[in-house]
Amino acid sequence: MSNAIVVGTQWGDEGKGKIVDLITERFDVVARYQGGHNAGHTVVVGDRKRVLHLIPSGILHPGKVCVIGNGVVIDPFALLKEVEALEEEGLELEGRLFVSNRAHLIMPYHMAIEAAEEQRLGEARIGTTSRGIGPCYEDKMARRGIRVGDLRDLDAFRDRLQSNLKLKNKILTRIYGAKTLNSDEILERYRRVAPGVLRFMADTAEYLQRATRAGRSILLEGAQGTLLDIDHGTYPFVTSSNASAGGACSGTGLGPGQIDGVLGISKAYTTRVGSGPFPTELDDEVGEAIRRRGAEFGATTGRPRRCGWFDAAVGRYAARINGLTTLVITKLDVLDELEEIRVCTGYEMQGRPIGSFPMDVAELERVRPVYESHPGWQRDTSGVTEYADLPRQARDYLSRLAEIIETDISIISLGPKRDATIILEESPNLQSLFSRG
Hints:
- The chain is α/β, with parallel strands linked by helices and about 425 residues long.
- Helices cover about 35% and strands about 20% of the residues.
């Protein structure tokens, strides 16, 4: 039995959905531990592409159990839309999908306030999806949240809703000059959706503990990436939860001693969506070529992603924060056509090297990336399935990344499909994650 965490090591969009789908066959349970439907995990099986926002990517494997943990915030309408789409395709979800009774519900006032705040901030906006994720987490921490389990008693649900809406309507009208929301209309909408959500509700922390005691293996899936973590990311341009590996325990109810390793996911280059510092960003034809070839547009929002060279300073920082066991490199094939590939090995400021990753985003905006240049391979790698068959320059590039980050690379993704992947089974670190011992 082995319990492992899958975590993004950049600013999200690293390809976690494909990797979770790929390795789910080696685990019994897949559990999502934070975030909401602002995340979009893209999975390609055969010629079919699916984008999952709340339900773990492992749901596409028959017989595997998927859990949405207490650390996730849930828009019930988005959840049931995903459920309906999967069941229409013939997937059996009964007994395979469980939603935590402790997960907090996103309410209409969360979305209204977030959209109004982004509009108020103007050019200083964070760049959120305005889906209510942040305000829902705010209410959770302020102890006025409404949880999935509250849908069992709609009278008590109504009381909490009315109490919250008194405050939220004052905020909407007096601060933002926006329209008020009607509690009766909201209650009726949630009354209609309650049976569909309660159908999957469970004490998921207890379920996961039982599964662990029974020797079943659990794959813990995060959303976003380490540099968007509320504590360890580029604050305030971050998400509202702990997207790093530490969030897996608090977001599921498993203890730290029950985690056996952490699988980090990183692109062969770097991307970012929304505002915030991005030291290696390429605002030129190379950046545009990477965006085009990598189809770098948000799975949830459709927004174009900012693209840049691989940032090993970010990689080293993420390796420390998450305690990475091993690393996956995705989208290596996107670099196939480039004559020169650059890697940021660290930062300088005023001619002096910076020893640690800056806490202050204003400082991060001023750093100068230190680059080294590597020759491109200028060969199509999309059909390669063995590491030895990669061009020598590609293997040298991967070896250099592993050396700088000080973490071995055990999986290489060369396209969106499951079989477009090289898995280095001989990696002892990877074997430790997949161990059933």
